[in-house]
Structure prediction request, 406 residues.
Amino acid sequence: MSDRPFHHGNLRAVLLEQAETVLRERGIDALSLRELAREAGVSHGAPRSHFIDRNALLDALAERGFVRLADEVREAAAKAPGDYVRTLRAAGTAYLRFGLREPALADLMFAAKADGPSPAVSAAAERLFDTMTSIMSTGVAPGGYDARDVGRLTLLLGTTIQGISAFIASHRITAAQGEALLDDAITLFIAGAAAGRQSPSGK
Amino acid sequence: MSDRPFHHGNLRAVLLEQAETVLRERGIDALSLRELAREAGVSHGAPRSHFIDRNALLDALAERGFVRLADEVREAAAKAPGDYVRTLRAAGTAYLRFGLREPALADLMFAAKADGPSPAVSAAAERLFDTMTSIMSTGVAPGGYDARDVGRLTLLLGTTIQGISAFIASHRITAAQGEALLDDAITLFIAGAAAGRQSPSGK
DNA sequence: ACCTGAACACCGTTCAAGT
DNA sequence: ACCTGAACACCGTTCAAGT
Prediction:
């Protein structure tokens, strides 16, 4: 532990990895740049070469979170057999389980920020939204809902899942209740959109 | 500024008031006990007599937030004229506007916490839930949904509104989009629950 | 019961200097 | 290009002591 070269060579990745662990195990308040540097075996000023400040590190974490969440949702949907309702359910469940596994990270990803998300975070979030949209699109053909309702339904399901996730993370409901709510939401959304073919937003 | 009595007499309330302002204007990261003490004109140790630590202050803020939100939702619902759908819409809109006015506070109220909310916060949150439940109950009689669906529908609408609020606060959608989504959600939920009288959660 | 003020350990951030 | 290490200003928290 003494002949480590001057250049770490891997510092950025190591910091992010450690940061995710701290976030998961001890929450965002316990996340300190100095501690991360200490554990990486570098001086406390070193992280500055990779993250301009603590917030930049948090942004990078949020960005990675969105990418991972999008991947997990897409995979879950791809593996789901059968009709589009089951696909939606699988995607939604994957979303909820991500929040269950990484509550602090999920919080960070959707935290209220005065100036909005950084471009990188925004792009990663859009990736998730695109994934959800393409999954929602599979329900158009079989006589489900109309193609022009996809955007709105995606947003509606997305916000609902996000709300369920927040309720679980803040211990307002249990995970089981959350999954039941997800089922209800999908059923009602789909049924409502397919049955009431008149525009739902009509006054 | 020199003949102030030893006992502030009002410190707890002043700290909370100032804290809400800081939270609103500069976010949770800018909230410092020492600064609050400074602005209240007391020593930095003084807040300790009222809040055991920073987290206790945050809990008190969240608790007050839930009480205020419940009040605003109840009032909005009471003032809403006409049928229960409009009442629900008014209640939901009040909820969204609270999040718009106090994004950081709303974040705090629904933040993921490892050990769950404190008893006081939990009680205040329940007050909000009770308010939502009683509003949702007004839709039972007129041939809307079944009485045994009220609990589930309340939870579903609550999570959905929360999700919409989070999407707005994190700049994922605009406030106008959020209100449109709320309309859609209410329409679909009500329509789905009233029309499909078979249990929505049935597999 | 409430507040003061010193003390302690910890931060984030900056920046000249080194490699 | 990346890292070191001193320096600065700021925290939260504790606690004996004052009123």
Observations:
- The helical segments of chain A are 11-26, 33-40, 54-79, 84-101, 103-109, 119-137, 150-169, 175-195.
- Confidence is low (pLDDT under 50) at residues 198-203 of chain A.
- The CA atoms of residues 107 and 166 of chain A lie 8 Å apart.
